[in-house]
């Protein structure tokens, strides 16, 4: 588990700590990586909790890092460093971490399972992360919210009425399918990193659009989706993480609460 300083537990010669490089002060896209590392009980350093963490992020953003002939320049965080490897992009990092952290199905017997899990992740990030971000920045990311408030209202109203139920409906169908297997999980009857991603997306949406998500939960059409959120939150390591200072509060990131955007749907 992460702390403000590198963990000090004893490690075998095969252990190589992970290093997550992300902006301090907000969960953001880095939270998907944190949840995977926390669920697995992996040793990692989170630069968001380091005193000079912002400078580490800026060094990668400016192209000062990485300084080697193998790793490519990276566009933006989240960034994962593991040994000599430095990679970016949330789904790409999770694709790397999933098998190493035991957050996929048995790939020996289900070699294509990783790609099905990745498909679920990409869909969740498209509709339940990227689109919500556009609700408060529908015109341009370089403009302040106040500069596009009226457009944001139109976007958010349409999102909670049409797009949010559509994506929750899709994941309800997945959870009702035979491929989901036994239990509350999306695929193969086993917790995978896709479940953690869906948890985080829904958790952020519950903060951003409380009226809409409460209404959708009460209607009962997406019961398995909300049950998955509860099941993830109750896992011992996740529950401990959520109650810790390592879990950063929602603020000025993807999931923001504005009263004027809090439509019921």
Provide a descriptive summary of the structure in words:
With 265 residues, the protein is mostly helical. The protein has nine helices and four strands. It has helices spanning 30-40, 53-61, 90-101, 113-136, 149-176, 193-208, 210-219, 223-233, 236-242, and strands at 18-21, 44-46, 79-82, 85-88. Strands 2-1-3-4 form a four-stranded mixed β-sheet. Strand 1, helix 1 and strand 2 (44-46) form a beta-alpha-beta unit. The chain is globular and about 50 Å long. Residues 3-13 have low confidence and may be disordered.
Write the layout of secondary structure elements.
Layout: E1 18-21, H1 30-40, E2 44-46, H2 53-61, E3 79-82, E4 85-88, H3 90-101, H4 113-136, H5 149-176, H6 193-208, H7 210-219, H8 223-233, H9 236-242
Parallel strand pairs: 1-2
Antiparallel strand pairs: 1-3, 3-4
């Amino acid at each position: 588990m992460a702390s403000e300083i590198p963990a000090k537990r004893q490690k075998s010669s095969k252990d190589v700590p992970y290093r997550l490089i992300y902006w301090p002060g907000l969960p953001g896209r880095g939270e998907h990586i944190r949840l995977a590392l926390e669920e697995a009980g992996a040793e990692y350093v989170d630069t968001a909790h380091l005193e000079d963490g912002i400078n580490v992020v800026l060094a990668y953003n400016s192209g000062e890092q990485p300084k080697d002939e193998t790793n490519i320049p990276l566009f933006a965080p989240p960034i994962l460093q593991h040994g000599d490897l430095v990679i970016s992009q949330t789904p790409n990092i999770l694709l790397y971490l999933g098998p190493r952290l035991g957050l996929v199905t048995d790939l020996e017997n289900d070699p294509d399972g990783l790609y099905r899990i990745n498909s679920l992740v990409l869909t969740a990030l498209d509709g339940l992360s990227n689109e919500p971000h556009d609700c408060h920045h529908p015109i341009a990311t370089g403009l302040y919210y106040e500069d596009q408030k009226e457009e944001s209202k139109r976007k958010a109203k349409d999102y909670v009425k049409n797009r949010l139920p559509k994506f929750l409906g899709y994941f309800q169908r997945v959870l009702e399918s035979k491929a989901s297997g036994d239990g509350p999980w999306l695929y193969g009857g086993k917790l995978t990193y896709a479940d953690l991603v869906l948890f985080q997306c829904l958790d952020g949406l519950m903060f951003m659009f409380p009226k809409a998500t409460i209404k959708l939960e009460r209607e009962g059409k997406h019961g398995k989706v909300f049950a998955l959120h509860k099941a993830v939150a109750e896992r011992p390591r996740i529950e401990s993480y959520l109650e810790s200072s390592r879990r950063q509060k929602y603020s000025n990131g993807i999931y923001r609460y504005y009263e004027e955007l809090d439509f019921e749907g």
